[in-house]
Amino acid sequence: MDERRRFPNLIYEEKKAIKLFLWLFYIFFFSYNVLWYLIIPKYTNFGDQDYLKQGLGDWLYIAVIVLLPISYFFKKKGSPYIIKYFVFLGYIFIDIIDNLLRYLGTDTPFASGNIVELLFVFFAPIFVNKRYFWTVSFGIIGKYLFLGIVLQDTDVIMPIAVTIILIAISFILLSRFNSYIESLKNVYEELRIKEKQAVIGQMAAAIGHEIKNPLASLKGFAQLQYEKFPDKSNYYPIIIQEIDRIDFIVNDLMYIGKPKAFQIEKVNIKQIINYTISLMEQQAEAQGIEITSSFAKNLPLIECDDKHLKQVFINLLKNAIEAMTEGGVIKITAVPNEEEKVVVSIKDEGCGIKEEDISNLLVPFYTTKKGGTGLGLVVTNQIIKDHHGDLKLESTFGKGTEVTVTLPIEWK
Ligand code: ADP
Ligand code: MG
Fold first, then answer.
1. How many Cα atoms occupy the beta-carbon half-sphere of 330 within 13 Å?
2. Domain coordinates of the chain in residue numbers?
3. Cα torsion through 160, 161, 162, 167, rounded to 10
4. Which residues line ligand 1 (CB under 6 A)?
5. How far is the CA of 168 from the centre of ligand 1 (A)?
6. Model pTM?
7. Tens digit of pLDDT for each residue in 247-303?
8. CA-CA 20 to 30 A from 194: which of 72, 235, 236, 304?
9. pLDDT digits (tens, 9 = 90+) for 163-212
10. What are 344-367's pLDDT values in tens digits?
11. Which atom belonging to ligand 1 lies closest to the Cα atom of 352?
12. 234-252 b/e with 16+ CB inside 10 Å = b?
């Protein structure tokens, strides 16, 4: 259900498919019956003129027509997804009754198959729904098996064989459609995130700009006041600290909106990481966390903006520390790989991330923390992308998380 709400186009497509499906169903059903039982027997020796009088007789057609207003009712009620099941199962049910009345207790040979069934099988992939596809497949085969057993007639084998062949072809179509829709969904999801970022970006650039100036004066005056009254019991340090926090958030927001100009230099990534560790060590120690690091000996210098990259590792290390409320070890490693890239891994023993939450991590403002902003990873990812690199998060809920940053040595 959730998926449908997120992809309003799908419900529209479903309604279109249902409409086409119903049209084809009735056209096939009636033209087949008219052709086979009225026209052909009239002019040739083929066909079965008595057919129309046996079984449910006129009631067969009335019952099939009645499916239509009920389908319309489902559509009005806002459940178009039910219609395809309803029409299929309704038709199969009517057909079974009709066949039983026609053949049970008589020695008329079972005349098999109706072209409408083939329509069901062929149309199933259009709905791109595996459950429906299997309902149709097993429904039709089940019907013939049931009739075969009840009527003690082996003539059902032929239609079963034909149906199975068609199911196989249909299945290939369904799989293709499925992977097609899957990739469309991914594109749509990406677009959704991008759109959100674009809106936030414009707002952030405008608001951030306006906030930064008054914030600077506030901080300046707070510092002045603090110097004037350096009393231990006053709140100036907290005021200054909180102003810094606002500044931090505004900077994050502004980065998403308008990535800043880069200052590219050849930098030793080991130095950057060691610097970040030294910044975060105090907070880590206070929580009983040990940070270990190991660097490959042949680590090359990489092209990057040193300030921005520090921001990346501060954000990632901060997340790791915040996830480890009960202490533990954070392991950082950096090694070059064969593709002229450097791979940095930050592995923590924290709370981990639930699988269903992983896709939210790069959505702005997604946070599970009380004082969180949900911007850290967005900015981090953006900086890494701007460096032509790659960010990967792997996590086991309750066990820990490994974040891997891959950065190219040179920008090509
Ligand atoms: P914030 O830290 O402000 O919440 P982030 O963008 O840095 O924002 O992180 C978003 C969310 O991703 C966090 O709230 C947390 O749920 C999850 N997360 C990120 N890193 C980790 C980690 N190392 N371990 C567990 N959860 C994490
Ligand atoms: Mg964070």
1. 34
2. 2-190, 265-408
3. 80
4. 315, 319-320, 323, 348, 350-353, 361, 366-369, 372-378, 401
5. 46
6. 0.56
7. 888 888 788 776 667 889 999 999 999 999 998 999 999 999 999 999 999 899 999
8. 304
9. 999 999 999 999 998 898 889 888 888 888 788 777 877 877 788 888 98
10. 999 999 999 999 999 899 888 899
11. 25
12. eebeebbeebeeebeebbb
Minimum-distance ligand to the CA of 379? Answer: 1
Residue 25 token pair: 């169903």
Which two three-digit tokens encode residue 263? 């200052």
Q: Are 392 and 335 in contact (CB under 8 A)?
A: no
CATH architecture, range 265-408: 2-Layer Sandwich (3.30)
The Cα–Cα gap between 335 and 372 comes to 31
Query: What's the CA gap between 251 and 154, in Å, rounded?
Result: 77
Kindly list the distances between the CA atom of residue 203 and the CA atoms of 158, 193, 243, in Å, as whole numbers in the listed order. 67, 15, 20
Between residues 107 and 373, the one the model is more confident about: 373
Q: Which ligand is nearest to the CA of 352?
A: 1
Res 113: pLDDT: 67
